[in-house]
Fold this sequence. Notes:
Blueprint: E1 3-6, E2 9-16, E3 22-26, H1 37-43, E4 48-52, H2 71-84, E5 90-95, H3 97-108, E6 113-119, H4 130-147, H5 150-157, H6 163-168, H7 170-181, H8 185-196, H9 206-211, E7 216-221, H10 225-237, E8 241-246, H11 253-256, H12 258-272
Parallel strand pairs: 3-4, 3-5, 5-6, 6-7, 7-8
Antiparallel strand pairs: 1-2, 2-4
Helix pairs in contact: 1-12, 2-3, 4-8
Amino acid sequence: MPHSLINGVNLYFETVGGGGPPLVFIHELAGDYRSWEPQLRAFARSHTCITFSARGYLPSGIPADPQAYSQRQSAADVIRLLDHLGIDRAHLVGLSMGGFVTLQAGLDFPQRVCSMTIAGCGSGSEPHRYAEKRAAFRAMSQQVAADGALAFVRACEAEPTRASFRSRDPRGWAEFIARLAEHDATGLSLTLHQVQGSRPSLWDFEDALRRTRIPALILCGDQDEPCLQPSLFLARTLADARLAVLPGCGHVLNLEEPALFNAFLRDFLATATP
């Protein structure tokens, strides 16, 4: 199994395709390296596709030290993975937590990022929602630490922004939930507290976003209400950004509507490739 020691943690990764521009997929809180299969199949013919499990997600390493987890650390892990693979610059594609990591990597390492695709990002980032959302992440962290990953599975099953995925693709939803139940409770709890529950608001980055010149594609489902305003904020604030809202779609855009997601991404990459 392909692992590499990245910033002191063994990260599991897979590469598919070869010869085309590098395209790195960064998963959400409820995902892992397997979450991007519809995109790997679609883009491996034209790109070198890379998917990985973040620290805290099997089969990658699970650090026990809470200080080993943060959003900036997650962004640094992406860049060190590129170093390991001998890649100078890459297109980054992230969903939700992975979208925030994509943005952080673009801000911290702009010379390494060709473009940013940021999907379903920023839930709870509005200034009037930020404290409540951060507290909710930390409360869920405590539940997972006490009751295991199934506490988060139950929360996802009840989450309105995931209802459209569950109703339109029961088979895909069942696979998604089964994989989520396999997550390591320690890694998930620490990610909830130290990454999700400790990250800044998108609005805290406003000045830096206005200075960023990396091409960006912002994607959001019209059923993903908590991410609609943050997505609009990103599209209005980033200097070179476009926004697409996917109709009838919730939070898990790339799995719920893979053909539409892939079409938007392919059109964007055609213009963002140097």
